[in-house]
Amino acid sequence: MNDERDMVPVFYQLFQDIKEQIESGRLKPGDMIPSESQLGKMYGISRMTVRRGLALLIDAGLIETVHGKGNFVAKPRLDRATLFFNETGVADEAGTSVFKLLGVRRVEADVLIAKKLKLPEGTRVFMIKRLIIGEKFPVAVDVKYLPYIKGKPIVENEIEYADFPAMVARHTDVMIHRIDMSISATSLTPEEAELLKTEPRHPALCIMQIIYAKDGRPLGLSRIVYRGDMYELKAVTYPYATER
Amino acid sequence: MNDERDMVPVFYQLFQDIKEQIESGRLKPGDMIPSESQLGKMYGISRMTVRRGLALLIDAGLIETVHGKGNFVAKPRLDRATLFFNETGVADEAGTSVFKLLGVRRVEADVLIAKKLKLPEGTRVFMIKRLIIGEKFPVAVDVKYLPYIKGKPIVENEIEYADFPAMVARHTDVMIHRIDMSISATSLTPEEAELLKTEPRHPALCIMQIIYAKDGRPLGLSRIVYRGDMYELKAVTYPYATER
DNA sequence: CAGTGGTCTAGACCACCCT
DNA sequence: GGGTGGTCTAGACCACTGG
Question: Using the beta-carbon criterion (under 8 Å), do A232 and B176 form an inter-chain contact?
């Protein structure tokens, strides 16, 4: 079945062939591709092998299957993007950023925090405050809130270099199930401005994250406020689901 | 092979079983799971069917395969998130947002635009300027640049309700391959502030997108400036690749 | 060498869709 | 009914890993 340049599995050949036909526009969204048995004959391979190739097209989002009817070229989706985010931010290339611990305290959750963490107002929670340093200057103020768990103290030097998920993972035993993230623009409060060595009302990118366990219980809340002129987020979209 | 409550394919049973064992912590990252033939005996199913189930675990990011050695529980990844973005922004629930076309012009690309679109400075490009209206108030100023293509005029009423990818798709024939996106915080220029009926220096979320063809050629550039107090982006992370 | 995963086959039976 | 996809089998041979 494999002719000249071998090495490449047959099912992968089929995948590439059809992918190429879709990307070149010879097959358009909504078009039906040949049936599995037809493809089997065309390539001289068994149906299971055909299905192997089609599976790749399916989870690349290039085709969609309708039981009893056939496989159809999918419509591109452009409303989702993959965000690349790590707290150290600016340093993802430079790799030189650093946290400066400003303090760890037990505080009573105010209305907002309590609501986000689904706790009664006034419940005691840990508050961890850090400064994120870029090349030379501070770029962000980082505040995190973790529910207080009996017998689970927060060890300062464990925190200093840990990112949010790592902190939560160490604090709780329960497995992280999902992280919700919201990104917005605000301006710096006087306090933040002082920490970031700039003027108040400076534009700022605010990233809020809430980590949830599988049962929906919030395990932590993180709010990072970046200097708008020293940080940006990057994201990529591919028209078909996941380009791996 | 299928016992009492049928309806659920065997390979999917196996997938769920192992997934559950990983999520509950009984199987930890780095652990090896039983070999394919062992699983076949355990479940009384053929090896191909076992592999079907394992494939699900693999592209859910829960396990990783090492040829000749075995399948191992993967480490969670928390540095990528999926962003949900559509230009209309605020209206993704309300669904009532609207574009107001401010103008379509042919202009000469300045240094910045030329560089981003990989064109010589001064090349003529289309500039499309729109206002995005939320419930009642304007929420964003939207400027897009498209390379000038001979015999491809821009039709105003086609633009009014189209989003960026749709505009580019209609303008170019070439297929969209990827969209790069950058998200940052700035403050409104006097012009933007006037359009958005607020004061200059108001915090603003700036989303810049560049659409590329497969050969790397830029097909368009979009810059949307949202009022910081009326818009936020949402994203989600799952520790294991794609939770579908 | 024995054990692992990677590819592939040539059937089978079922569920679904359409006419 | 005939065509489609959905599931599954019981083998086969190959490629890689380790002792």
Answer: no
CA–CA separation, A199 and A194 (whole Å): 7
Measured in angstroms, the CA of A193 and the nearest CA of chain B are apart by 14
By the CB < 8 Å criterion, does A127 face chain B? no
Q: List pLDDT tens digits, range A23-39.
A: 888 999 999 999 999 99
Contact between A20 and B175 under an 8 Å Cβ cutoff? The reply is no
Taking CB atoms and an 8 Å limit, are A79 and B76 in contact across chains? Answer: no
Q: Which residues of B touch A92 (CB under 8 A)?
A: none
- Chain A contact for B200 (CB, 8 A cutoff): no
Task: Residue B14: count other Cβ atoms within 10 Å of its Cβ.
Answer: 23
The set of residues with CB closer than 7 Å to nucleic strand D is A 35-38, 47-48, 51, 65-71; B 1-2, 9-12, 44-49, 52, 66-69
What is the Cα–Cα distance from B35 to B69, expressed in whole angstroms?
A: 9
Chain D: nucleotides under 7 Å from a protein CB?
A: 3-12, 15-18
pLDDT in tens, B230-239: 888 988 888 7
Q: In this complex, which residue's CA is closest to the C1' atom of nucleotide D2?
A: A68
Least confident of A226-235, B161-170, B182-191: B161-170
Alpha carbons A226 and B210: distance in angstroms, whole number: 23
Mean of pLDDT values over B28-39: 95
Burial of B23 (0-12, 13-18, 19+ CB in 10 A): middle
- C-alpha torsion B87→A85→B181→A210, nearest 10: 0
- pLDDT (tens digit, 9 = 90+) per residue, B209-235? 999 998 899 999 999 999 998 888 988
